[in-house]
Amino acid sequence: MSEKQKKRLIPAIKGTKDILPQDIRKWQKVEAVTKKTFELYGYREIRTPIFEATELFEKGTGQTTDIVIKEMYTFTDKGGRSLTLRPEYTPSVVRSIIEKRLYLQPQPLRVYFMGPMFRYDKPQKGRYRQFHQVDIEVFGEKDPAIDAEIVEMADALFKKLKVTDTEVLVNSVGCRRCRPAYHKELRRKAEQAGERLCADCQKKIMTNPLRIFDCKVKTCREASKGFPEITDYLCPECEEHFSKFCSYLDLYGIDYRREPRLVRGLDYYTKTTFEIVSSRLGAQDAILGGGRYDDMMKDFGGPDICGIGFAMGLERFISVVPFTEKKEKFIYLACLGDRAKRAGMELARYLRRDGVECLIEYKERSLKSQMSRADKLGAAWVLIIGEDEVKKGLYQLKEMATGMQRECSREEIMKIIQESS
Ligand code: AMP
């Protein structure tokens, strides 16, 4: 490697993003409000590893999904095991619940989670290879009231954060009893569409015809308009579940649109599926998506316990949350000379101990240059410490917004700052 090559910057990987200090307040606020909202509904946080056995996602997410076919970050570790960076959260949670026997706890069991996900998809606005999801899951509640409760919880979160211009789409994808008859009819119609379907969709006819509805190709979209709708094939149980779910949404006064083509890209959904989309997002307009997965736990070798959940993309959500930055409330300690610096260091420690945010200048600089630095950094106050101040134990506190300056002891400084916040 040449010297020049050695010094070359190694850039971030395509499809990944740094979340920078100037943006972090917004992330922190959204995360905090989200957690608080979920906790109000009885959810508790769960954290599982970022990587799992590849098989877990093959089995859980499903062999015929785009995620498993083309998007997983899979690697072999030094012990020769095939591992995958999680592309979604549900299989990890279900694994953990079975393995740690959390299903023995009183049900319904409500958990939430926040963290990065990894999908090797084509990056574009709103679509990344590492992105963040907030995820909730409920286990052991069959009643459609819970389906409505989680949509209402998402709605409450959106309202708290003043997110507008969203639409709730709902559907039912039936169950293992009623879906085969629908699949049969759908396959028949899809075969008739023949060349009007893209090559990818032609394959889906056999593997998972429902997913033809997810295709973005224009001719496929056109062709699928004439395909039968799943809601006409629901068995009485699924039909009743769906109509109760909708009636509970009505009870909450939540506007929603029935979208019979909303199938969502995962294999495991049963009965309810839903999505919240935003008209402010462009092509990648889904903020949140979810549904019921009543068979996953038993398919994973666990007890027969139903599940339902949703995942929300944080990048997309945060981009539609209005945000006004709160003014920083910190104090800048401008020290003139070595004795002043030492006094400043002690003073900063004293103030921080009681929760006052301080920045202290260590470099030898003129007062003028320190004042201009404090201003650039956005300090609310500057505390001027020179030889005289150290001797007297009284310091010059300047409020930057008004320019007012007064002499204070450290106790007075503390009082002024605490009273102002
Ligand atoms: P999914 O797990 O595919 O149902 O996605 C749930 C939510 O995660 C979506 O509604 C998006 O908000 C977000 N999401 C999914 N994939 C990506 C991605 N590649 N980049 C950014 N956000 C994503």
Quick rundown:
The chain has 421 residues and is α+β, with helices and mostly antiparallel strands.
Can you walk through the features of this model?
The protein has 421 residues and is α+β, with helices and mostly antiparallel strands. The chain folds into 2 domains: 11-178 and 234-319, BirA Bifunctional Protein, domain 2 (2-Layer Sandwich); 330-420, Rossmann fold (3-Layer(aba) Sandwich). The protein is 40% helix and 21% strand. The chain contains 16 helices and 16 strands. The protein has helices at 3-7, 21-40, 54-60, 66-71, 90-99, 144-160, 179-193, 199-207, 218-224, 236-252, 296-299, 314-320, 338-353, 367-377, 387-392, 410-420, and strands at 44-45, 51-53, 73-76, 82-85, 109-118, 130-139, 166-172, 257-258, 270-278, 286-292, 307-313, 331-335, 358-360, 381-385, 395-399, 405-408. The strands form 3 sheets. An 8-stranded mixed sheet has the order 1-5-6-11-10-9-7-8. Strands 13-12-14-15-16 form a 5-stranded mixed sheet, sandwiched between helices. A 3-stranded antiparallel sheet has the order 2-4-3. Helix 6 (144-160) packs parallel to helix 10 (236-252). The longest helix is centred in the first third of the chain and has 20 residues, at 21-40. The two termini are 55 Å apart. The mean pLDDT is 94. It binds adenosine monophosphate (AMP). The site of adenosine monophosphate has 18 residues, from strand 6, strand 10, strand 11 and helix 12. Adenosine monophosphate binds at residues 88, 119, 121, 126-128, 131, 133, 265, 286-289, 311-313, 315-316.
